[in-house]
Write a structure and sequence with these properties.
Helices cover 3% and strands 42% of the residues. It has 510 residues and is mainly beta. It has 2 domains: 230 residues, Pectate Lyase C-like (3 Solenoid); 172 residues. The protein has a 32-stranded parallel sheet that branches. It has a 16-stranded parallel sheet with strand order 2-4-7-10-12-14-17-20-24-27-30-33-36-39-42-45, with no helix packed on it.
């Protein structure tokens, strides 16, 4: 084995790598990595060139890889390019090869498609397992075959910065890997981790910032840009930050925060996803999960399917402490923002423009606050509060619904109750400005301004079974509907003046 030209620096050319794009450089390059390992760490330099490898290169602890100007390309059929473990390794917790930095270079997974590329197997381009302090910076990960560009599995302190993820091909035999993430945040579990120990160690303290996710020159974008799809009982991913990324054309979700907690998804630009742009979700009810304290803020989401942003707990695994704030959501083929089984969620200061379905939909989420949002051109209700108790809907502007109502309160898994609808402005709703429906009880509608168009039929309406409603201090004036349509009461007459009277219109302007 040769001696490094500089202390602590191991240039792969000094170990026989050619970088000519045709010679298989795996053995020579691995010699440089092995030399760094024997020295206790160092910097492995991969100079400009195209390096063909037919197996994973293995990087060990306390090592920096500098590959600016280089391309490292898999020419195998079922192998990626780089990982931090040997085939026979076994580590607990975060005790594997750690303190690794990868800087620069194009790392080409070389997925086969249409006679171009060699890799037909399901393989990651880069894999890091059971480790601490892993940084991937200024790289291009290209043409993933069926799996992931970077897998973080049982990593504490993983960072992917200023990098690009381009191109994906599902080469799996059953064509069932369309969900694969360019960056997977994963758990050390049998079937998910490439090596033992399968001790259910999850990832924590992960930062992905300033990255691009989309197609390559020959392959489309991956199914998901960033996310997780595996967990276990009482297992969550902690302190995940996805900041300032650009995501284009993911076939499924842009970001899938599965069983995450104490996490932030902020200032990303996401376009053209085949499913929800940002999804916060949990395990099935049969597998206990504790997902909480999630912030989704300042994202720009356009031309996406299903929902722009969705918080999807369930009856056994509710997501608590969710904040969805300051996002811009436009041209969505479903709901703009969808909150489900997320008690106490705060949905505020979002701008939702042009949805096929509801602008903001909250279901079975007690104590949800929907405040200060602007909803334009909703295909269904502007705001829909279903089955929520103690919800607050205040200070929102709803302008034009293509069907249904400006603000709607109705049943979910149970009837809505004690919902406060206050200080909202509703213009050009298709049917009613505000409707309280189902078997809702003890709701208050106060201080709202409802302005219709010639097509708007009603101001405020109640379903016949609604009880205990107060409708006081609303401005329904200046509209062309018949006076009787300004407030349409339930069978149990609502309180319409400050002293508790029920004679319409009470203390409301009509």
């Amino acid at each position: 084995m040769q001696i490094a030209a500089q202390p602590g620096v191991f240039n792969v050319r000094d170990y026989g790598a050619t970088g000519n794009g045709t010679t298989i450089d795996t053995t020579a390059m691995q010699s440089a990595f092995d030399a760094a390992r024997l020295a206790g760490g160092g910097t492995v330099v991969i100079p400009a060139g195209i390096y063909a490898v037919d197996n994973f290169l293995v990087v060990f602890g306390n090592t920096t890889i500098s590959a600016y100007g280089a391309t490292v390309r898999s020419v195998a059929t079922s192998r990626g390019v780089l990982r931090n473990f040997l085939a026979g390794d076994s580590f607990p917790g975060y005790a594997g090869n750690s303190g690794i930095t990868v800087e620069g270079g194009i790392w080409d997974g070389n997925a086969a498609d249409g006679g171009v590329g060699t890799v037909t197997g399901t393989t990651n381009v880069m894999s890091f397992i059971h480790a601490r302090d892993i940084t991937v910076r200024d790289v291009v990960i290209r043409n993933i075959s069926s799996a992931h560009g970077v897998e973080f599995n049982a990593i504490d302190g993983g960072r992917i910065l200023n990098s690009r993820f381009e191109g994906f091909k599902d080469n799996s035999e059953l064509q069932d890997r369309g969900f694969s993430e360019s960056v997977q945040i994963d758990i050390a579990r049998s079937g998910s981790s490439s090596i033992p120990q399968y001790d259910l160690t999850t990832c924590r303290n992960i930062l992905i910032q300033g990255c691009y996710f989309g197609p390559s020159s020959r392959l489309p974008a991956a199914g998901r840009a960033i996310g997780s799809h595996t967990s276990d009982v009482d297992c969550t991913y902690d302190n995940i930050q996805i900041i300032g990324c650009r995501i284009e054309g993911a076939a499924q979700e842009g970001i899938r925060a599965f069983c995450w907690r104490n996490s932030v998804i902020a200032d990303n630009v996401i376009t053209g996803t085949g499913q929800t742009a940002i999804l916060l979700t949990v395990s099935a009810p049969t597998q206990r999960t504790n997902s909480h304290s999630m912030v989704v803020k300042g994202n720009v989401i356009t031309n996406c399917a299903v929902s722009g942003i969705r918080v999807a707990g369930n009856s056994a695994n509710r997501i608590t402490g969710a904040v969805v704030s300051g996002n811009t959501v436009r041209n969505i083929s479903g709901n703009g923002i969808h909150i489900g089984d997320a008690p106490g969620a705060n949905v505020s200061a979002n701008h939702v423009d042009t949805t096929v379905s509801t602008g903001i939909y909250a279901v079975d989420s007690d104590g949800v606050s929907v405040n200060g949002n602007t909803i334009l051109a909703a295909g269904s209700n502007g705001i829909n509060i279903a089955g929520c108790q103690g919800a607050i809907v205040s200070g929102n502007t709803v302008r034009e619904t293509k069907s249904n109502h400006g603000i709607y309160v109705g049943d979910g898994a149970r009837a809505a109750a004690e919902v406060l609808i206050s200080g909202n402005t509703v213009r050009a709703a298709f049917v009613a400005g505000i409707r309280v429906a189902g078997a809702a009880t003890d709701c208050t509608v106060t201080g709202n301004r409802v302005k219709g168009t010639a097509a708007t039929q009603f101001g405020i309406t109640l379903n016949g079974a609604v009880t205990g409603t107060a409708i006081v201090g609303n401005d329904l004036s200046g509209n062309s509907w018949p006076a009787a349509n300004a407030i349409v009461p339930s069978t149990a007459l609502p309180q319409v003046d400050w002293s508790g009277g029920t004679t319409l219109p009470g203390h409301n302007l009509v």
